[in-house]
Amino acid sequence: MARLLFTSRNFSSLDSSVDNQAGNKLTNLIGKPVVFMNQSHSNLVSVVSDTAISPDADGLVTTNRDIALAVRVADCLPLLLISSESVSAVHVGRKGLLNQVALNAVEKMKELGSTQITGLVGPHICGACYEVDSQMYEEIVKDHPATGGKVNHLNLFAGLESQLTGIKLTNLSLCTMENPEYFSYRAGDKTGRQVGVISL
Ligand SMILES: [Zn+2]
Asked: Which of 62, 100, 129, 172 has CB atoms 3.0–4.6 Å from 177's, for a disulfide?
Protein backbone atom coordinates (compact mmCIF):
# COMPACT_ATOMS: atom_id res chain seq x y z
CA MET A 1 0.00 0.00 0.00
CA ALA A 2 1.50 3.30 -1.06
CA ARG A 3 2.16 5.99 1.55
CA LEU A 4 1.63 9.60 0.68
CA LEU A 5 1.27 13.04 2.18
CA PHE A 6 0.90 16.68 1.28
CA THR A 7 2.48 19.43 3.35
CA SER A 8 0.98 22.86 4.04
CA ARG A 9 2.39 26.27 4.94
CA ASN A 10 2.60 25.22 8.61
CA PHE A 11 5.21 22.59 7.77
CA SER A 12 7.50 25.33 6.37
CA SER A 13 8.55 25.88 2.79
CA LEU A 14 10.31 23.19 0.79
CA ASP A 15 11.52 25.33 -2.10
CA SER A 16 14.44 24.48 -4.39
CA SER A 17 17.00 25.39 -1.75
CA VAL A 18 15.52 22.85 0.65
CA ASP A 19 16.91 23.60 4.06
CA ASN A 20 18.16 20.49 5.81
CA GLN A 21 15.86 20.90 8.75
CA ALA A 22 12.72 20.84 6.64
CA GLY A 23 14.10 18.02 4.50
CA ASN A 24 14.92 15.93 7.56
CA LYS A 25 11.50 16.61 9.04
CA LEU A 26 9.91 15.33 5.84
CA THR A 27 12.06 12.18 5.87
CA ASN A 28 11.06 11.53 9.47
CA LEU A 29 7.40 12.01 8.65
CA ILE A 30 7.30 9.63 5.67
CA GLY A 31 9.92 7.33 7.21
CA LYS A 32 12.13 7.19 4.11
CA PRO A 33 14.72 9.41 2.37
CA VAL A 34 13.04 11.72 -0.14
CA VAL A 35 14.09 12.41 -3.75
CA PHE A 36 13.36 15.90 -5.09
CA MET A 37 13.65 17.07 -8.70
CA ASN A 38 14.74 20.29 -10.41
CA GLN A 39 11.42 21.27 -11.93
CA SER A 40 11.12 23.48 -15.01
CA HIS A 41 7.63 22.80 -16.46
CA SER A 42 9.25 20.24 -18.79
CA ASN A 43 7.86 16.89 -19.92
CA LEU A 44 10.86 14.98 -18.58
CA VAL A 45 10.17 12.01 -16.33
CA SER A 46 13.05 10.33 -14.52
CA VAL A 47 13.07 6.81 -13.13
CA VAL A 48 15.07 6.86 -9.91
CA SER A 49 16.32 4.05 -7.70
CA ASP A 50 18.12 6.03 -4.99
CA THR A 51 18.50 9.51 -3.55
CA ALA A 52 21.95 10.18 -5.02
CA ILE A 53 20.80 12.95 -7.36
CA SER A 54 17.91 15.37 -7.86
CA PRO A 55 17.16 14.90 -11.57
CA ASP A 56 16.19 17.71 -13.93
CA ALA A 57 12.62 16.54 -14.41
CA ASP A 58 8.97 17.27 -13.72
CA GLY A 59 8.07 13.68 -12.99
CA LEU A 60 9.75 11.02 -10.87
CA VAL A 61 8.99 7.29 -10.94
CA THR A 62 10.38 4.54 -8.74
CA THR A 63 9.95 0.86 -7.93
CA ASN A 64 12.19 1.16 -4.86
CA ARG A 65 10.21 0.78 -1.63
CA ASP A 66 12.98 2.35 0.41
CA ILE A 67 12.73 5.86 -1.02
CA ALA A 68 10.00 8.49 -1.39
CA LEU A 69 9.40 10.96 -4.24
CA ALA A 70 8.50 14.64 -3.85
CA VAL A 71 6.91 17.23 -6.11
CA ARG A 72 7.04 20.95 -5.17
CA VAL A 73 4.11 23.24 -5.92
CA ALA A 74 2.50 26.55 -5.11
CA ASP A 75 -0.60 26.57 -7.43
CA CYS A 76 0.34 23.88 -9.96
CA LEU A 77 -1.10 20.39 -9.53
CA PRO A 78 0.86 17.93 -7.38
CA LEU A 79 -0.11 14.62 -9.00
CA LEU A 80 0.74 11.41 -7.16
CA LEU A 81 0.31 8.21 -9.18
CA ILE A 82 -0.19 4.96 -7.34
CA SER A 83 0.14 1.30 -8.34
CA SER A 84 1.38 -1.92 -6.74
CA GLU A 85 4.56 -2.02 -8.80
CA SER A 86 5.65 1.64 -8.96
CA VAL A 87 4.71 5.14 -7.84
CA SER A 88 5.20 8.58 -9.34
CA ALA A 89 5.20 12.24 -8.33
CA VAL A 90 4.43 14.70 -11.13
CA HIS A 91 4.41 18.50 -11.45
CA VAL A 92 1.50 19.53 -13.69
CA GLY A 93 0.90 23.18 -14.48
CA ARG A 94 -0.55 24.77 -17.60
CA LYS A 95 2.62 23.93 -19.54
CA GLY A 96 2.69 20.42 -18.12
CA LEU A 97 -0.85 19.80 -19.26
CA LEU A 98 0.13 20.87 -22.78
CA ASN A 99 3.39 18.91 -22.90
CA GLN A 100 1.70 15.80 -21.41
CA VAL A 101 4.24 15.19 -18.66
CA ALA A 102 1.64 13.15 -16.74
CA LEU A 103 1.14 10.82 -19.72
CA ASN A 104 4.92 10.33 -19.85
CA ALA A 105 4.89 9.34 -16.18
CA VAL A 106 2.08 6.84 -16.76
CA GLU A 107 3.99 5.39 -19.71
CA LYS A 108 7.13 4.89 -17.57
CA MET A 109 5.06 3.20 -14.85
CA LYS A 110 3.57 0.82 -17.42
CA GLU A 111 7.06 0.03 -18.73
CA LEU A 112 7.95 -0.94 -15.17
CA GLY A 113 5.04 -3.36 -14.97
CA SER A 114 2.25 -1.23 -13.51
CA THR A 115 -1.19 -2.17 -14.75
CA GLN A 116 -3.73 -0.66 -12.37
CA ILE A 117 -2.85 3.00 -11.81
CA THR A 118 -4.83 5.56 -9.83
CA GLY A 119 -3.99 9.17 -9.04
CA LEU A 120 -4.43 11.75 -6.33
CA VAL A 121 -4.16 15.51 -6.87
CA GLY A 122 -3.33 17.65 -3.85
CA PRO A 123 -3.78 21.37 -3.18
CA HIS A 124 -3.66 23.52 -6.33
CA ILE A 125 -5.34 26.58 -7.81
CA CYS A 126 -8.96 25.80 -8.72
CA GLY A 127 -10.83 26.52 -11.93
CA ALA A 128 -12.70 29.44 -10.40
CA CYS A 129 -9.46 31.22 -9.39
CA TYR A 130 -7.08 30.51 -12.26
CA GLU A 131 -7.69 33.43 -14.61
CA VAL A 132 -5.60 33.86 -17.77
CA ASP A 133 -5.82 36.30 -20.70
CA SER A 134 -8.38 35.53 -23.38
CA GLN A 135 -5.79 34.60 -26.00
CA MET A 136 -4.19 32.02 -23.74
CA TYR A 137 -7.60 30.74 -22.69
CA GLU A 138 -8.69 30.20 -26.27
CA GLU A 139 -5.42 28.56 -27.29
CA ILE A 140 -5.63 26.03 -24.50
CA VAL A 141 -9.34 25.33 -24.55
CA LYS A 142 -9.20 24.73 -28.31
CA ASP A 143 -7.07 21.60 -27.77
CA HIS A 144 -8.15 20.85 -24.19
CA PRO A 145 -11.85 21.65 -24.05
CA ALA A 146 -12.24 20.12 -20.58
CA THR A 147 -10.16 22.94 -19.08
CA GLY A 148 -12.77 25.49 -20.13
CA GLY A 149 -15.53 26.55 -17.78
CA LYS A 150 -15.80 30.00 -16.37
CA VAL A 151 -14.75 32.47 -19.11
CA ASN A 152 -10.96 33.04 -19.22
CA HIS A 153 -10.45 30.66 -16.31
CA LEU A 154 -8.66 27.31 -16.66
CA ASN A 155 -9.63 24.19 -14.77
CA LEU A 156 -6.38 22.25 -14.92
CA PHE A 157 -7.71 19.32 -12.92
CA ALA A 158 -10.52 18.77 -15.41
CA GLY A 159 -7.98 18.99 -18.25
CA LEU A 160 -5.71 16.45 -16.58
CA GLU A 161 -8.59 14.11 -15.89
CA SER A 162 -9.56 14.08 -19.55
CA GLN A 163 -5.92 13.59 -20.58
CA LEU A 164 -5.38 10.57 -18.34
CA THR A 165 -8.08 8.39 -19.86
CA GLY A 166 -8.78 5.25 -17.89
CA ILE A 167 -7.03 6.45 -14.73
CA LYS A 168 -9.25 7.29 -11.80
CA LEU A 169 -8.12 10.61 -10.33
CA THR A 170 -9.18 11.92 -6.94
CA ASN A 171 -9.12 15.66 -6.35
CA LEU A 172 -8.64 16.77 -2.76
CA SER A 173 -10.36 20.00 -3.89
CA LEU A 174 -8.18 22.28 -1.79
CA CYS A 175 -7.59 25.58 -3.60
CA THR A 176 -4.21 27.16 -2.84
CA MET A 177 -5.41 30.64 -3.73
CA GLU A 178 -8.49 30.52 -1.51
CA ASN A 179 -6.94 28.69 1.40
CA PRO A 180 -4.26 30.63 3.33
CA GLU A 181 -2.91 27.40 4.80
CA TYR A 182 -1.19 26.74 1.47
CA PHE A 183 1.51 28.56 -0.44
CA SER A 184 0.11 30.22 -3.57
CA TYR A 185 2.30 31.85 -6.20
CA ARG A 186 -0.61 33.91 -7.45
CA ALA A 187 -1.54 34.99 -3.95
CA GLY A 188 1.99 36.34 -3.46
CA ASP A 189 4.22 33.45 -2.39
CA LYS A 190 7.05 33.82 -4.88
CA THR A 191 9.36 31.24 -3.32
CA GLY A 192 7.32 29.27 -0.76
CA ARG A 193 6.48 25.73 -1.81
CA GLN A 194 4.58 22.80 -0.33
CA VAL A 195 5.17 19.25 -1.46
CA GLY A 196 3.33 16.09 -2.33
CA VAL A 197 5.28 12.98 -1.33
CA ILE A 198 4.70 9.33 -2.24
CA SER A 199 6.40 5.99 -1.68
CA LEU A 200 5.50 2.39 -2.37
ZN1 LIG B 1 -9.97 28.70 -5.96
From this structure: 129
Q: Quick one: what percent of the chain has pLDDT higher than 70?
A: 98
**Domains of the chain, earliest start first:** 3-124+169-199 (3.60.140.10)
* 173 Cα–ligand 1 center, Å: 9
Whole-number Å distance, alpha carbon 61 to ligand 1 midpoint, is 29
How far is CA 151 from its chain centroid? 25
Rounded to the nearest whole angstrom, what is the distance from the C-alpha of residue 97 to the centroid of ligand 1?
Answer: 18
pTM above 0.85, yes or no: yes
Q: How far, in Å, from the CA of 174 to the mean position of ligand 1?
A: 8
Among 100, 82, 74, 71, CA closest to 160: 100
d(CA 178, CA 182): 9
Report pLDDT digits (tens) over 170-179.
Answer: 999 999 999 9
